[in-house]
Each structure stands twice: as C-alpha cells, then as structure tokens.
Design goal:
Radius of gyration: 16 Å
Number of helices: 7
Shape: globular
Number of strands: 2
Distance between the termini: 54 Å
Helix content: 40-55%
Length: 183
C-alpha cells in the first residue's frame, strides 16, 4: 500500500483533506532528464492543446534527441498534471494557512517551500495552483527537490492552464540571482 500525503488546512472550509491526486507520495521513478523534455515542450508549444497527438509528439521528441525513457516520464508526469488540474476547485477562506505534512516537507525541502510561499505572498500563485505545484513535485518523489526543478514545475502548471506568468515571475523563474541587474 503506497503512502498518502494528507493536506491540513486551518480555517479553510471546502478544501479536501487529502492531496489532489491521492497516493502519489511514492516516487514514480522519473528520470533526471524528464525536466529537459518539459522545458522543451514549454519553449516550443505555447499551450498543451498546441502539442501534436501523443504518438506524433513522441516521434518529434525522439527526432530532437530525447531518449524514450525521458519522453515517457515527461508524458506520464504531464498526464498527472492534467488529472490534477481537473480536480482543482474552490478557494480557501481568507486567512487560511497551508500546513505542509512531514512527507511534503521531505520532498520539497525548505528552499522550495520558501519559494512557493514567496510566489503566494506576491499574489501570483493562487492556492489551487499551489496545490498543483505541490502535487506534481511530490509525484517526482525523492527529495528535497532541486529549486530549479521546482521552478520548472511552477512554469508547467501555468502552461497547463494556458496562463502566461507575469514578466517579473518569469524573471524569478529563469534568471540566476547573480545575473539580475539592480537598479
């Protein structure tokens, strides 16, 4: 029996007690290069509905040099993202607070939790999208997840919903801190 991550909310009536995708806490064995495939999809297809059919997409990805395992991992991860997006409903009450389980903290790590909190406090990552990010990060398993991989997950959540992140958020997601220009 695989473990289930539980989501605890304070004053958040209407939110499910269980994580969106259920028993995804078990590492799904994704290859480390799966994120390269995800970035390629983001850069070459503006929205998920602009991607070709799965078989044709697989052939295109092989043609540009990705390995079959990486492609299958990315497509499986994206299927999970689509399923998670379908389950996102409601908004937490004002003043509600997200409490991370021990398992989520192990997978995400302090740096990633801090980054998620930063995006939330900046008003660019609403609670339903936050839950999608957490779900897809825990699906990767292992931990703690590398911050750069978490940033790709955040980007893919926006992409899956057909939303373009704010320019400042794109800067936060892709520009290394040492390369930022201070005015």
């Amino acid at each position: 029996m695989s473990p289930v991550f539980r989501v605890a909310f304070i004053n958040a009536a209407g939110w499910p007690e269980q994580s969106l995708a259920g028993p995804v806490a078990k590492a799904l064995g994704y290859s480390e290069f799966m994120f390269d495939v995800l970035v390629y999809l983001y850069e070459n297809y503006w929205r998920p509905d602009s991607c070709p059919e799965p078989r044709q997409l697989e052939r295109k990805l092989v043609a540009v040099g990705f390995e079959n395992e990486e492609i299958q991992d990315a497509l499986r991860w994206l299927d999970g993202l689509a399923s998670t997006a379908e389950g996102v409903t409601g908004e937490p009450n004002t003043g509600s607070m997200r409490i991370y389980t021990d398992g989520e903290r192990d997978v995400l790590g302090e740096e990633s939790i801090g980054f998620i909190s930063f995006l939330e406090s900046a008003g660019v990552l609403p609670a339903p999208m936050r839950e999608m990010v957490i779900d897809r990060a825990t699906a990767v398993g292992g931990g703690p997840i590398d911050l750069e991989d978490l940033k790709i997950i955040v980007l893919m959540v926006f992409w899956s919903l057909g939303e373009e992140p704010d320019a400042l958020i794109l800067d936060e997601l892709f520009v290394a801190p040492e390369e930022r220009v201070v005015h």
